[in-house]
Specification:
Number of domains: 1
Protein name: Sulfotransferase domain-containing protein
Distance between the termini: 42 Å
Radius of gyration: 18 Å
CATH architecture: 3-Layer(aba) Sandwich
Strand content: 5-15%
Order of helices and strands: EHHEHHHEEHHEHHHHH
Helix content: 40-55%
Shape: globular
Number of strands: 5
Amino acid sequence: MIVTSFHGMSRSGNHVIIHWTGYSRQGLYLNDMLRRRRYALERGADLPPARFTPSVLQALSRRSLRKLFLDLPRLARGRIVVSLEDWPLDRPVFATRPRRQHEILILRDAPCLLASRVRARMWDAGGSAARSPSEAVAQWAARWKQHAREFLGETRHLPGHCGILYDRWIADPAYRAALAERLGIVPDEAALSIVPPQGGGSSFEGMAPLGADAVTRRLSRFDMLSEEEKALCAPVLADPEIAALRTRLFHRAP
């Protein structure tokens, strides 16, 4: 059994990238698998790492009989695809690491990521531990910095992971081709033109068709915010550490 884990913050493009790899069609796909456990951790619960097999069975038990009937043959194909959104990388995901595990870390540039989360009002999510929108944005920024440091190799919570910069991935066919070669896949380029149903679609357009200017809009989310929404993000984006990480990640001035 091969376990492919996709790590990334919600609104980082996890779903579209997973569909682009084709992995979601090759095996059992468990979206945001440990969401309830993550909520408990964010509220201060002291939980041991989850056990892998019981976690898979628990995820399956929450599905409808029809969905379960469709999923069981996928499980027999020998691949489980796990999406882990907003997971704290310094906490082990599972008590025992699956023997054949591939880990992929997806990172989106901070302004667009924060813009999508602010527009979606993610501080209203059922598991949010934030007491105010500004506190939520500060928590998101701290998680983004953790993911960025892992991406750059400053930490080694996900040894051997494949890193994907969403902003380059969406705009640069050569970058996607290099990633496909590294992963050993024949990617589904058509996935870039489809809004995945997981997560309710875009924070800005929902499930509306993408249109010819989809890439430009995806890379300009911060500019699409209201002045009030931009003000929520401003203190975080002025953080010198975030500016330095962005420069190193994207090789450009922030």
